[in-house]
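QA checklist item 7 of 12: single-chain prediction sanity check.
[x] sequence parsed
[x] length recorded as 245
[x] structure emitted
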Amino acid sequence: MKKIINFAHRGASAVCPENTMSAFIKSLELGATGIETDVQMTKDSQLVLIHDEAINRTTNGKGFVKDMTLEEISVQDAGSWFGEAFKGEHIPTLEELLDLLRERDTILNIELKNGIFMYPGMEEKVIHLVREFGMTGRVVISSFNHYSLAYCKSIAPEIRTGILYMEGLYRPWDYASTVGADALHANHYAVLPEFVAEATKHGKDYHPFTVNTIDRMKALIEAGVSGIITDYPDQLAELLANRGV
């Protein structure tokens, strides 16, 4: 059985504040072989790792990332909302995470959050950093903005891409080829064993999200997916170890 990538969703987000260095480091300790994160761009064109377009939910501040400078973003407390032990955590930059993973063999799934705000120039900046850190072979760029993914592939054909989508996409392996994508980052409910088999025939990998129950993890492993995105990398790691994959 092939090696399945254990992607920690926003890091070990079940036990740490999501998209923080604590979450990323903890996920590696818990057995993650991949990390999934989200990228937004600040007012001064810096790449920061946060899921929402606004900082309201995961920091003690308010406002849109696009309206704040990196300096303004970096002083926000991104940990206290999750627990007092994480007080003082900051919103990291993409460079910080790339630096953490540079000397490891961890796969990094970078989700471009450019569906609401387009963030002109984001694709070039992400690709430049990935190349600068020598990680083109260990990165998958994903997005719900498939125009953006097609553009990424046109300027960086050596970097893998994955289309993010929900349920009901017809023959997604065929559609993925139209934007040059290598992987299908589907809502896990949209993944059936026969779909995985057909996608494999067409050279497309499935990396379903967000899979947080043991039963669903088992079913997707049996179906033959290439990776699983989860908030519980420790549970998936144990499952994979017991199965020898």
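[x] summary fact logged: The mean pLDDT is 97.
[ ] second reviewer sign-off
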